[in-house]
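Input set for joint prediction.
Command: fold jointly, output tokens.
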Amino acid sequence: MKYDVKMKVNGDLVEEQVTSRMLLSDFIRDVLGLTGTHIGCEHGVCGSCTIKIDGVTNRACLIFAVQANGADISTIEGLSNEDGSMSILQELFSKHQALQCGFCTPGILLAAQEFIDGPGVTVDRETVREVISGNLCRCTGYETIVDAVVEAAALKIEGEL
Amino acid sequence: MIPNRKNSSWIGASLERREDRRLLKGRGRFADDVSLPRMGYVALLPSPYANARIKKIDLKAAQALSGVYLVVTGAQFVKTVGPMPTRSNAPVVQYCIAVDRVRHVGEPVAAVVAVNRYIAEDAVELIEVEYEEYDPVVDPMASIKATGNGVLHPDVGSNVVHKSEHSWGPLSQNLKKAAHIVTENFRWNRVAPQPIETCAAVADFNPAGEYFTIWSNMSQQSIIGGNLAISLGVQETQVNYHLCDVGGSFGGKAGLFHVPMIAAGLARLAKRPVKYVEDRMEHMANGNQNGSDRIYTASLSLDSDGRFTAVIFDVIDDFGAYFMINTGSHGNSLAQATGPYDIPALGYNLKCVLTNKVQQAPYRGFGGEVANFVLERLVDAAAKKMNWDPIDLRRRNFITKDNFPYRIPNGNIYDSGDYEKVLEKALMAADLPYWESKKKSAIQKGKRIGWGISTVNERSVLSMTEFWFLDKSPRFPQTSSPESVQIRIASNGRAVVTIYAPHWGNSPETMAVQLVAETLGMHPDHIEVNYGSTENGMISKGPVGSRYTVMLAGAIAGACKKLKDRIFTFAAHMLEVEKNELVIRDEVVSSAFSSGSSLTFAEISRFAHNFRLEFPAGEEYASGLIAQYTYDHPLTTSPNPDTNDLGIFYPIVGHACHIAIVEVDEITLQTKFLKYVAVHDAGTIVNPKAVAGQIRGGIAQGIGTALYERVYYDDQGQLLTVTLADYAIPTSLEIPDIVIDHVETPSPYTEYGIKGCGEGGRLAAMPAIAAAIDNAFKDKGLFIRELPVTPSFLYDNLHIDD
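tokens >
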């Protein structure tokens, strides 16, 4: 049995039919072809599939596509500026080499962007570590990710972002 | 050639990585991102038993399920896909889907191809298998004596697949003369790389020409293409293997394991493209990617002045159910078995055994990290026993900087180094007197502060002999480990560099850009990099054993030399001057002697591509500007067959000193870092930020190994760590900021004096952390012989030592 779902993904209206058990992560990747959302564990542990649903980050592997019916979703493909150039957070990740293999990076960027845009934004490194602690990275040792997010947070607080 | 830094424009610059932009935009291309028309999805049925005979498999219900294209057993699959390639010298046969017998939990028993992964998994549930269970062999010591069904591979006759004893230098004399001998037992537990991306492959088979096209992250392509073809029963020229972005390897994705073979074999049988992506549980239970699993008795002998005179390692290594890497990880342990110390004699006695667990593969360090841990622990044990300062004891035994190249007893050499300088920098940064002074006040708050040091070598630039030189009659004594590059100047004057090794999270494109910019005098923005697939590729060994940047630099130097000659040939004719007068600066060619006219790369290349008739006849003016070069290992020699000299096999040797300062809570026994200092000497540095990234990443994995991670099997061979929630890789809360500094002692043997640095963090971290925790409990006499040092492990050990 298939169900109609309708949602907004990175600003585009999407209408599809899905089975009740299709994971949102598979829907995004296999049905919509947005392969920037990565699947690392499907247990909700690694955070690679982190996306935003109605403004809040979620694990796409722990949600069924039908549950997202009517939702406003954004993925890594929606993070860049309107003209396709990289956002300041993306630029800072490049500047600090806050990625190596880049597989966990989309999830970390979404978690970090939510923090930068949120009310609790701060340049405190321990807070930033807490913010990204739900996303596993096996390459970097996290320090340069913290550097990038802290610099973005500073710009936000100074009103330059 | 060692660069004069004053003249270097691009070597030593922390350029932003060329790999990053696509990855930051979600536009990388990983294997699972590849999708083909009519593609089927694979799911595998895993064995629930560690050791069993497969009596009967009933596929009927699975085959009848709507949406299922194909269901096969191992016995059916093996008719078209032979056993997996192996470096094993003993006749250890491994099928990618088990035939007749399963040897570890998670080993595949049958495969399904269906319209999607959901249906494929439904079908797997419907497969009925009858097993005859055998007693599992889990303990490596018990495995040595096992008989009957406890022998995993009856053709081998025993679970001991390799046994050899070696000594180099005046071993027995030095032991006899020794003033002190410290002997300790160590247990090095199984850990695993666990990259965030599991293994994946998409395969297509075109019956016209019987041609396979494969996209996979198991990706040392030019090695893999040939091996894969043998198993598939076709010529290697009937397989095209594409490189994808790889979501972390750490050595684990270096080999050809089952994933691309299963995808390719099923694509041919199902007559449609097929995708197989491991889920995390499969990666853990059947990834064929566990690290070393060793039991050591090791001794260090000293004279009365505290000089080391000999070191002996007695090692039993539990390889799991198969033996694909042969004794490679022990060859690796031998590359720097005497560490940074002047030790004239070395013993190494090795037993490799099989048990009912998933098999080993390389993991960052490939055994070198284990030998470093054991040697550093022996040095600490000697310091403790003799009540010597562990830093002074190390310093007293360092190979001094005027003694390079230095030959270690087994025949390998160390090219260059300045260990004293690295140590001094690390001690300055760590400020141990400060932390000593904080110990007392910390105790009053229920915290124990401890510091530990490691001074280790960082062998780099792998050669192939380590995989087989311990065998009496090696099966495939391979000695080549080349790396290739193609560089062309397009008709617009821009350079296009083609490389043949994958991006694993290292920085191959960035390295190519910086090295070409430096060597050809170009701006990095004018250089593009792409990847060759096997059908239009050159030979490449790829990024293992911390070799890629060094090998790529050699290949680029060779190709640029050829390319410059081509550019000068055209330019000399166009400028009407002699070739040998010409110089390149900033992509402009001019005469060094006359201040007259000059030509840009773009102008020369436009002519070289389009105006053949403007140039004289003759081969040297053939159209285009393109050069290829294959670079072989800069310095290796053959081992002696009787193993009394292993030859030069890992001569590009860096050095590292790590100092960890930890705080352990007296109640919870949790360890946290107050400071962590890492000083490395990896020769000339191409991109300092990228090198620091490799060091930090290696340390993060080292912290995982030291404090958190372990692959647990119970006594029935059941795997207990099957998710990333059970197998605890560190998060951002466990890894501290690292103080990093460098010394640059160039290698005399490599282009620009570069040494490898991909594994250094993990080659050095564990002994420093173990020593720091010992130091925190100095009054209790703690001495760590096993990792990970979890709170419960510490609780047990402190009580034992009480």
